Amino acid sequence: MTSTTSANALPNLISAQELHSLLQVQDSSSSLRVIPLDVSLVYPPASEYTQHIEGRIPNAKFFSMMRYASEDPGLQTAIMLPTPGRFVGAMRYLGIRRNDHIVCYDVPGFWTPARGAWMLKVFGHEKVSILNGGLAAWKAAGYSVESGPYSAATPSEYPFVQRDENMIAPFETIKSFFSGGANNNNRVVIDTRPIEEYRDIGHIPNSFSLPFSYLLAGPPPNDMRLLPKDQWSEIIAKVVGEDLFKKMQDKNSGVEVINTCGWGVTTCTLWLVLGHLGVSAKVFDESWDGYELRVGNPVEKGAPGELRPAEPTKGVTSFPELQIPIENLPDDGTPKVEEVSH
């Protein structure tokens, strides 16, 4: 295992044993602190914060991917990157320092930690890793968990930072992919939603389907660890074709790759995988949720090989039960953070 050394370095994947070793060697005098960060996400009425209080890795902190999100007042998308002010406000409240080594994890294993790691990288945090298998792997390895409420941390002086917009694909970029006609090999969109949603609800025209579950060791929720790295290339090449995959890896080919899913969460796992395979990909933060909530976007339906045009988007979500404004979420005790301006 190696530690990340720059803001541009990709997050490492570490095992429960490696995280345990990291936590054992640090002490109060160490300048490098290792912070397990629970970025679990469950949809209302369930509560990820309640889940965190009931059981967590010792000394872990909790970052709410939904409640600390930046809500688009027009689209009402479920989950978006926080604003710089809200992100920094959360880091300060949690007592996290800019040079801390953050290890993202979730309860099931690999549902949201890549999203948490991508978010941290968007804001330029240097030392970021992901616990492969999450809290489930930690428990399976025989390590103890904490439970119960805990006191708030001493606020940190985390510096004000901006987002790296080069890591994010806005809707305007997606629109440019299809507004000029058929997609081509210099414009690649990969959708990680379940094949049923891709096929039956619809998808962005000419996008590839690579269900998130294909990247896992077993079907969720049985084994939510990421597959070994030596299997990643074969999976990607099988979806997009070997020739296009090679072009995607060629920095001089001009190929632009964008990942999407339902809410911009599971597709960050593909961002991680592609990055370690030499492919620089962006994440469509709105993903299908935002795409569908805009009126008049072109839609395709059907599985690969049997595609058919469908009616344009009507500005209505396929999952209305998830469209709950942040301010209307039930109070589950999640600490509230202030948006800072500097």
Describe this structure in words.
The chain is an alpha/beta fold and 342 residues long. It has helices at 16-25, 48-54, 84-93, 113-122, 134-140, 171-179, 195-201, 232-240, 242-249, 267-276, 287-293, and strands at 12-14, 34-38, 61-62, 101-105, 128-131, 168-169, 187-191, 208-209, 256-260, 281-284, 299-301, 308-310. The strands form 3 sheets. A 5-stranded parallel β-sheet has the order 1-5-4-2-3. It has a 5-stranded parallel β-sheet with strand order 6-10-9-7-8. Helix 4 links the parallel strand 4 (101-105) and strand 5 (128-131). The protein is globular, with a radius of gyration of 20 Å. The two termini are 35 Å apart. Residues 1-6 have low confidence and may be disordered. Residues 54-147, 183-300 form the Rhodanese domain. Residues 300-342 are annotated as: Disordered. Pfam families: Rhodanese.
Order of helices and strands: EHEHEHEHEHEHEHEHHEHEHEE
Oligomer: single chain
Main β-sheet description:
5 strands, parallel
CATH architecture name of the largest domain: 3-Layer(aba) Sandwich
Sequence of strands across the biggest β-sheet: 1-5-4-2-3
Number of strands: 12
Low-confidence stretches: 1-6
CATH superfamily of the largest domain: Rhodanese-like domain
Helical content (DSSP H or I, runs of 4+): 25-40%
